Amino acid sequence: MTTSHSDGLSRRLLLGALAAMPALSGLLDATAAQAETGAPLASWNDGPAKQAILDFVRVTTDLSSKDFVPPEERIASFDQDGTLWVEHPVYSQIVFCLEHVPELVKAKPELKDRQPFKTVLSGDREAIAKLSMRDFFEIVLGTQSGMDVEAFREISRKWLAEAKHPRWGRLYTELVYQPMIEVLNYLRANGYRTFIATGGSAGFVREYSGKVYGIPPEQVCGTEQAFKYGYDKDHRPILTREPKLVLDNLEAGKIENFWLMYGRRPYTAFGNSSSDDLQMLEYVKAGGARLSVAVLHDDAKREYAYGPAQGLPNTSVGTFSQEMYDIAKKQGWIVVSMKDDWKRIFGFD
Amino acid sequence: MTTSHSDGLSRRLLLGALAAMPALSGLLDATAAQAETGAPLASWNDGPAKQAILDFVRVTTDLSSKDFVPPEERIASFDQDGTLWVEHPVYSQIVFCLEHVPELVKAKPELKDRQPFKTVLSGDREAIAKLSMRDFFEIVLGTQSGMDVEAFREISRKWLAEAKHPRWGRLYTELVYQPMIEVLNYLRANGYRTFIATGGSAGFVREYSGKVYGIPPEQVCGTEQAFKYGYDKDHRPILTREPKLVLDNLEAGKIENFWLMYGRRPYTAFGNSSSDDLQMLEYVKAGGARLSVAVLHDDAKREYAYGPAQGLPNTSVGTFSQEMYDIAKKQGWIVVSMKDDWKRIFGFD
Questions:
Q1: Within 13 A of A74's CA, how many CA atoms are on the CB side?
Q2: Chain A within 8 Å of B151 (Cβ-Cβ)?
Q3: What are the pLDDT digits (tens) for B91-127?
């Protein structure tokens, strides 16, 4: 009974039908191939945000500029959820993890009556939506542990190749913001190395970062659990994902762990969440002639609208507080209005 | 009294006189500029080790080979101490840290009677040499904590620009193995990205990895302590090094943390220590047509000789056990004899 209930729940939680799809690789190659042609940032409307990005690149790459940055120091950091791809109505990786809760509970029945698993199994969407990020971390550690690293890669790849977003009926990896793909390409064309700094699991994001964003796995910094070296039954060495958090990339953890992994302050950072990007954006901006950019989701028609900054609806996913908005203005960050600054949202628009 | 005693000790511990030196940068640029000219691996004698490296590169980069590796997957990992540069008579970073123990004890007098600080302050070289790696980690955490990340970079750079190895009277960064510099260059010339996986602090090694090895800071994985975000008295955001270990890169930690940071199994790995490189080399070799290389220090005349493998002297620094030697032979790793395989040891030879 638990199983059939769980199966039904699993489907509901996917928030959309899973359908047979062509291999992911073809699609992703096409996305990555959208290199710069003609004028840079073609999907951006003229305005202060676009101009600030162009100006930043100009002054940091012009040898005669007082703000010139040597090529080996050109580091750019990007949040993922809500900055590079859609994060509503719920973070994609959470959808991926929730789907695996029923099989986890089947293997460990004692979790059935423990939070947050009990809430997930209840199927109560409103209660699930109210779970905290710490609850989600527990779900992530529960569903992504005890397996070989290669097995996890396989499960991630399979999900990414099949699962679709309920609103657009497209793969999650198609729901990347075309204007941001152009920023990544433009920065790289000017000698910047691009990095992802995400609250999500690095191991999940690495499965598509290369093909979708042109960012190699080693340049993805994320929340990460421990790995344990050991041997399988044939005495072959294996690495197993352990239910222990090593890098917690929420809040200030994002810049703390960026420094731990890469040892430098980025020259530019892009983010959108006041709970998880504020310190990164603030630290980058404090480094001198650097560029911090916060993306404001104010386009309910083409994507979503949420704040609560500027009177936008308040949601628990990807919160952009009025406090961060005020800090951005005071410290001279750039706030991007998706509605006004972006000509189109997606590559398929 | 403590101060003058400490000062004297500090000098002794440096194991050599500090002298005014020309800026580090000129020298390092020259080292990095030693790119491949003519035949690859010019400082290697013909033999099975050189041939294995050439063969590995050939079969993994030839499109018609069954073992062809796509460029984006070409990852090579290198231990540092004893593999890329000299580690005897004591790890360079330990010399750097021991020098700072007196000032640490001055700031926190309660450490004076606590181990391992008491032993360090005693000046008893034999007792210091017997400290365990865990003791050294405590010294590292003690001497590298409580300071801003930028301040630590400055201290590291200053030491690296001045401190000299007692035997050669040269900067530590000059004591890199020329044959290994050629391996790094040769791999990169064939599309490999080169990484360091060290038991030392990533933040220390990153200060010279680019200029000495051509390896950018973000491709250095090392033991690392926590960083804490906060504000200075002028409310400017700062990151402070904390006395807490986050990544422990000893023993199996080296491959566990390599996966955590980069998410992949390298195609080739180079190491030398049975305590800290064995699992990395074993895991790489278990991945199929891959190359694991262990460097055996068997050249007391030109460098040092230590094992205890093959009857070489047993030392506590960079131990190469007979057990690892036997595993290497059984699993098909390549063991490099510094005496027989290397025409010269250093770039200045």
A1: 22
A2: no
A3: 999 999 998 888 889 988 998 999 999 998 998 888 8
